[in-house]
Write a structure and sequence with these properties.
Elements: E1 6-9, H1 19-36, H2 47-54, H3 59-70, H4 76-97, H5 104-114, E2 118-123, H6 127-136, E3 147-149, H7 164-173, E4 180-184, H8 187-195, E5 199-203, H9 209-221, E6 226-228, H10 234-243
Parallel strand pairs: 1-2, 1-4, 2-3, 4-5, 5-6
Helix pairs in contact: 1-2, 1-4, 4-6
């Protein structure tokens, strides 16, 4: 029998439907950076094109990857300035339009009422953005201070698929990987949790129907032990993880 007592949750498109809003917000900024650095783009980035390539990564990781690809550089001050600007743009969009993933609020309320599991958020996104997201939809009360950001909470900022943020969260919470289960919607997030030794539930709920089959394959290959289509399945899936059947 498993001894899982902690549920670690990604935020973007796992708890809240934020990815489209966020990538919409940062596409304009990336296009501005490209113009400033004279990067010859075949066509401007859009929210959709960024999602396809960078879902699960934070803005710092995204712009660092693009700088390597296109051969331009940013000073640490420039990078920090753009990261702050992207946070402001995205947070404004989230505060205007953000909603929870269907069924997530009900699951969180039940888990909190049962008091069997420690609940924490483990995200690549900046802490200010994650906090704004869970505040906006009323989920913050379930996590208190247990909100961890790869962009903000670590001595050196990083992004999933680096497992550093999961390792940091477990150390801070005083938990081992065997005591935890994670929920992730992206390849990078699933790799991050898996590399930290945690069993990961792959969540495909927010993806378009035409994309779900492919995402199931991608998340499974990245290490997800089971795929969840909707939050209504979480209780039965967690029972199977606890029993050791998955």
């Amino acid at each position: 029998m498993s001894k899982i007592n902690t549920v670690l949750l990604d935020c973007d498109n796992t708890l809240v439907l934020s990815e489209e809003l966020a990538f919409e917000g940062c596409a304009d900024l990336i296009n501005e950076i490209s113009a400033t650095k004279n990067v010859p783009l075949e066509q401007p980035f859009t929210g959709d094109s960024l999602i396809n390539e960078f879902v699960g990564q934070n803005f710092r990781g995204m712009i660092t990857s693009l700088a390597q690809r296109y051969g331009f550089s940013l000073t640490p001050d420039e990078l920090d300035s753009y990261v702050r600007r992207e946070e402001d743009v995205v947070i404004a969009k989230l505060q205007e339009k953000l909603v929870s993933c269907p069924g997530a609020d009900e699951v969180l309320a039940k888990l909190a009422a049962e008091k069997k599991y420690k609940l924490a958020v483990v995200s690549s996104s900046a802490l200010r953005r994650v906090q704004a997201s869970i505040d906006k939809v009323g989920q913050a009360k379930y996590f208190g201070a247990d909100v961890f950001s790869a962009a903000t909470s670590l001595p050196t900022p990083t992004s999933k698929p680096d497992p550093a943020i999961y390792l940091h969260a477990m150390k801070t919470l005083g938990k081992t990987a065997d005591e935890c289960v994670a929920v992730e919607d992206s390849k990078s997030g699933t790799l991050s949790g898996t590399r930290a030794g945690i069993k990961v539930i792959g969540y495909v709920g927010p993806y378009k129907d035409a994309e779900k089959k492919e995402m199931e394959r991608i998340l499974t290959e990245a290490g997800a032990v089971v795929i969840m289509q909707h939050w209504s399945e979480f209780e039965s899936i967690l029972a199977k993880v606890q029993s050791g059947s998955i």
